[in-house]
Every structure is written in C-alpha cells, then in structure tokens.
Amino acid sequence: MANNKxxxxxxxxxxxxxxxxxxxxxxxxxKLGVELVEMPEFNCCGLPLDPVSHETMLILAARNLALxxxxxxxxxxxxxxxxxxxxxxxxxxxxxKALCEEVNSHLKASGLEFKGTVEVKHIMxxxxxxxxxxxxxxxxxxxxxxxxxxEHNGCHILRPKGxxxxxxxxxxxxxxxxxxxxxxxxxxxxxxxECCGAPSVGVSDKVALQLARDxxxxxxxxxxxxxxxxxxxxxxxxxxxxxxxEKMFNExxxxxxxxxxxxxxLAIGIAPEELAFSELRVDTSRILKxxxxxxx
Amino acid sequence: MAAKEPVKASEIDPKFKYEIxxxxxxxxLMRCFQCGTCTSDCPVAKFSxxxxxxxxIRMAQLGLKDRVLNSDTLWLCAACFTCTDRCxxxxxxxxxxxxxRNLAAEKGVxxxxxxxxxxxxxxxxxxxxxxELRIKKxxxxxxxxxxxxxxxxxxKSLEGVGFLKxxxxxxxx
Lengths: 296, 173
Hints:
The complex is a heterodimer of chains A (296) and B (173).
Chain A: E1 5-9, H1 13-17, H2 19-31, E2 35-38, H3 54-71, E3 75-77, H4 80-95, H5 97-107, E4 120-122, H6 123-139, E5 148-152, H7 161-164, H8 174-181, E6 185-187, H9 205-221, E7 226-229, H10 232-240, H11 242-249, E8 257-259, H12 260-267, H13 285-293
Parallel strand pairs in A: 1-2, 1-3, 3-4, 5-6, 5-7, 7-8
Helix pairs in contact in A: 2-12, 3-4, 3-5, 4-5, 6-8, 9-11
Chain B: H1 16-21, H2 37-41, H3 53-62, H4 65-69, H5 82-86, H6 93-106, H7 112-124, H8 132-140, H9 151-157, H10 162-172
C-alpha cells in the first residue's frame, strides 16, 4: 500500500452534527489497514470565511498544513470542503512565492511555517490510490448486489478543476467506481454533478433547500433505494433536511442517505450496529433488511 | 432589484474593474464577453429570482461599485465553481464574486452567518460552536477526544488581517 498512515483532519461540520460519517470512516479505514493519527491541535480549514476574507482563509488553511508538516504526516479529510481547500491552498502557496512569504509572516507569530511538504487527500482518493480498487474488492465479503443507489459527489473535491486536479468534474467516476466495488448498482440521473446548496444555507434557506429538493426529485425518478454521499454538508442537506424539504414542498421521499463508508462497511463485513446507522435521520431499516435478509 | 434600474453616469466608477483585476482571483474580470454560460449553468440561479452571476460580472465591469457591493444577491453564490470551470473565457467567475464579497465585507457588509462563524473560529478553532453534550457523547460512541483549537495561537496568526480588525472594531462599538 502506497501510504497507510494519515493525519485525520475532521473539520467542523462532522463533529458538529455528522458523527455517523466519522464513525463509519474510522471503522472502514481501520479494517482496510489505514492508520489514522489525530490532529495535534485544530482550526477550521478556512473555507467558510473565504467569502468574507480570502486572506483569513489562506492563513487558516496554511496553519493546518504547517501543523501536519510538523508531524511529518500527509492529511486525510472526510470533508471535500476541507480537502479541496487544503489542496488548493497548498498548490497556491507552492506556486506563488510572494503569497507564501506573506502567509508565512503571519504563521511565524505562532511558531509555524508552511514548507509545502505534505499531501492532502480526501478519503475517496485514499481508498482509490492507497488501498487500491483490487484490495478493496478483495475485502468485500458481502456483495451488495441487491441495492440500487445514486451517488452525490461534493463540489469542492472536484472544482475548480485547475486547482484540485483530482478528476474530471463534468464526469466524475471515482465515487461511482467505489460504489460499484461494493457490488451495488449505481444509477445515472439528471444533473448528477449539481451542488446540494449547503453553502447558501443561512443566506437563503429557501433557495438552498430547493437545490436539495431538485436532486431528491431526480433520484426518486430513477427509483434509487438510497443516496450515497461523501460530504458532511451534502449529507446534512439531504438527510437532516429531508423531512423539512418534504414538509416545505409537500413531497414524500423517504430516501435514506448513506455516507459512503457506511455502504462500504456493510460490504466488507462490518456489523450495521457498528456503522452508526441509528445516527441518520431518514429511516434506513428497509435497506438494512434487504442487506441482512440476502444472507439467508 | 437594484440591478434593473437605469444606470446613471454619476454612479459609475471606471477604476473599479482595474481595482478588482489587481486582486487575486479577479484578474480576468475584463475578459468576460457576457455569453451567459455562468448564469445558465448556475444551480442557484435556477431557483433564485435575483441571483445572476453574468449580471454581477457586468455590473463590476461597468463600475457600478456601490450597487454591486450592496447587493443582497452577491451572497447567494454557493461557491460550487461550476461557472469557473465552464467559463469559455476563463474568467474564474466564482472567484470574482468572492473578490466582490471580500470588498463588501471590508465596507462592513457581512451577513450574520459569517460573523458567527468568524467569532466561533477565533474562540474555539471550530466554525460552529460544538455543544458540550456532543463532545461528551463522543466518548460513549467510542471516538477519541476532539482536537482542541489553540485560540491564542490562531489569534496571533490572524493579527493584522483587515477583516478581523473590522469585526473587532464593530463589536467594540
């Protein structure tokens, strides 16, 4: 395995209200042999403040990169927002010497320095590049062939493509490939790469929830039994807010929204009780029943 | 919406586009030829009656500085970067909008949600105030303790940053 030890950058949304993602990701990574080291200290990646102060975002991101450098470990993130921001800032500072010096002049006050020596990867990237598709498939003991699901990517791990360079944002294949590795069918649907609306919550909830609703409509149309996400903010939009959207627009979805590691966990033989399904808002009992009954 | 009102010569600041072009992310503002790809592909514009990235870019090019910086719609962008990736002129639309928002923030226009997040980051490192109950619950869920934010060190790193100076000044008032 290319790299099997990472510093875990949890971000803010996950400890705030998306604990199932963390629990399932830790379980899955442990089972696949990826060791996680906790961050020595923490601050937000910076992304939430980019709209009001680009400079603040740069400094906050660079602080985290510098802390990881002190530990000598590459960073893994579960949140595409954190992953994308840290990747982008690392690239910006490496390519722009003047900017790097300016940011470092700020970090100096707290004894830190960005040198550009660590890499940042989102969990999808670690699963693809470090664990590898072959090993992932080998670990599958319970192929989820009974499930038809729809994927939803996170914008910031794909865009802007010039900075992230992870994969083609117009036709992303990684999450689809990772879903299919579990044996589940991943359905195509309209406007698959569109944003969930999360960043507009707080500015206009009404607009933001319409974005999420649009996606739930498309997914319902293709009869997906679950939606699979890899982002805590997208998950909040579809799972935490699903009931709210149903009420607001007089719709009925009942579509469970799983964190990808929960799906993968089921396939590699981790008990559902260990994958924090009870922390999800939308009822998952129907699909869990499908999975457990297929054993018999 | 203010954008639809006739343009008066007196409200045009011809230097505004050059000001934006000097800021990182705003360099390519003047390349925009108003094709409208950004607006037609914008997931927010689909559901908002007022948010139109093409219009924001045009207002910036025309120099309607006060109008664009005081516009509520400026804050609706979800920063998904679809417009940036699809712009045939490579304008980095989402970044131009970020530059405009930053300029608005410098003038004191900051939606509440950002003020709260900034205050929380300075206090705890986290953008949200994580309830004590959730921190305790981690233990019962078998999770390691959350890494702590070093507020003093964060503050030191952010010393001299214009936006935070504004924030502090305002909270003192």
